[in-house]
């Protein structure tokens, strides 16, 4: 790809958050996609994270597929040569050796002494965070800023899963299971962050994704957050760029309390809303994942797929807050990273 094609591809991918954004980068860059899959019995749940890491000065550059067993908390970091990674320009189609990942499904061919994971899964009803010319995904106008430390994309808030995987010799049927897809790319993960996600509520089609982090900005930093609750085909958004504010953010040994207030669109009308999240931590299902720092992929992120999140959404109608939705999300992904005092 010549320099002109590289620039054009980078411009196109602003409005294609799912696609590979790393063309033209040779060092100090990472990109990773996060696929969460849960079988219909909800007993087998996994996070599968393919990606690429370009070390500073080209040192330690490689591609990878990382897996997390959400039931046991066990992780595997499958490291591959840099040359094993390939990506279509301005389209969501990536490969790491013989493992392929798209919005329509994944094909896994991991056959190593530490783990076997082989098979194909297809995704139906993929529900990405809306992309418009003015707002290219979950980061809104921040997507246009060229110097962000880390960019974020939500590629499917909720979808159904079909297919089977052979996992360590056992056949696991994911037909009628549920999935979620997101990604991150840039120079490194933030210095501190909290992230939670769940799309397993009593009502199918409800999904929550929420993250707050310490964001570098023009020589200083600020606490930025982005939250989306999909309910009855409406995406309720709370974010720094929407004018929402955090009323409470507290992390205890067993829980994360997060309350926010801000304007949302409800039935075509802009209204004030409050969202309350209480995440219940289950340390038995927690293990360390590798995350991109500026010099290496370090094993330093506590993540669980066994958390639960209590969600309450209230909308102001005629001067009073009316509860619109309340429910508990199961099999929640929950990450706590870095020095949390910087965001609390």
Please identify the top-level CATH class of the largest domain: Mainly Beta
How many H/I helices? Answer: 1
Main beta sheet strand tally, sense and closure = 12 strands, antiparallel
Number of structural units classed as domains: 2
Low-confidence stretches: none
The assigned structural class equals: mainly beta
* Span between termini: 44 Å
Q: What oligomeric state do these chains adopt?
A: single chain
Q: Kindly state the number of beta strands.
A: 22
Shape descriptor: globular
Q: Name the CATH architecture of the largest domain.
A: Beta Barrel
Note the beta-strand portion.
over 45%
Give helix % range: under 10%
Question: What's the CATH topology label of the largest domain?
Answer: AttH-like fold
Radius of gyration: 19 Å
Secondary-structure element order, N to C? HEEEEEEEEEEEEEEEEEEEEEE
Mean pLDDT figure: 92
How is this fold's topology laid out?
Elements: H1 3-13, E1 29-38, E2 45-54, E3 62-69, E4 75-80, E5 85-87, E6 93-96, E7 99-102, E8 105-112, E9 115-124, E10 150-167, E11 170-173, E12 177-186, E13 192-198, E14 207-217, E15 220-231, E16 234-239, E17 245-251, E18 255-266, E19 269-280, E20 286-292, E21 297-317, E22 320-338
Describe this structure in words.
The chain has 344 residues and is mainly beta. 3% of the residues lie in helices and 61% in strands. The strands form two sheets. Strands 1, 2, 3, 4, 5, 6, 7, 8, 9, 10, 11 and 12 form a twelve-stranded antiparallel beta sheet that branches. The termini are far apart. The model has no long low-confidence stretch (mean pLDDT 92).
């Amino acid at each position: 790809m010549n320099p002109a094609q590289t620039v054009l591809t980078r411009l196109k991918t602003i409005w294609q958050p799912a696609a590979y954004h790393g063309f033209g980068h040779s060092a100090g860059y990472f990109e990773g996609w996060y696929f969460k899959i849960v079988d219909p019995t909800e007993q087998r749940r996994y996070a599968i994270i393919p990606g690429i890491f370009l070390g500073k000065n080209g040192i330690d550059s490689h591609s990878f597929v990382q897996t997390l067993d959400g039931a046991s908390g066990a992780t595997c970091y499958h490291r591959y040569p840099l040359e094993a990674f390939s990506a279509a320009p301005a389209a969501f189609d990536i490969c790491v050796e013989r493992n392929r990942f798209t919005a329509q499904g994944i094909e896994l061919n991991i056959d190593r002494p530490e783990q076997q994971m082989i098979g194909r899964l297809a995704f139906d009803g993929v529900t990405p965070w809306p992309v418009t010319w003015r707002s290219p995904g979950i980061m809104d106008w921040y997507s246009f800023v060229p110097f962000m430390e880390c960019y974020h994309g939500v590629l499917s808030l909720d979808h159904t899963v079909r297919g089977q995987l052979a996992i360590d010799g056992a056949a696991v049927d994911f037909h009628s299971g549920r999935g979620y897809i997101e990604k991150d790319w840039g120079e490194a993960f933030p210095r501190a962050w909290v992230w939670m996600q769940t799309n397993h509520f009593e009502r199918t089609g409800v999904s929550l994704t929420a993250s707050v982090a310490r964001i570098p900005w023009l020589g200083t930093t600020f606490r930025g957050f982005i939250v989306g609750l999909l309910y009855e085909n409406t995406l309720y958004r709370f974010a720094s760029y929407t004018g929402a504010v955090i009323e409470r953010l507290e992390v205890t040994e067993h829980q994360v309390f997060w309350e926010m207030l801000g304007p949302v669109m409800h039935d075509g009308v802009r209204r004030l809303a409050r969202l309350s999240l209480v995440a219940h931590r289950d340390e038995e299902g927690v293990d360390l994942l590798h995350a991109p720092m500026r010099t290496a992929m370090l094993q330093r992120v506590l993540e669980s797929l066994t958390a639960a999140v209590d969600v309450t959404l209230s909308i102001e109608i005629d001067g009073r807050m009316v509860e619109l939705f309340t429910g508990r999300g199961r099999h929640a992904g929950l990450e706590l990273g870095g020095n949390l005092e910087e965001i609390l």
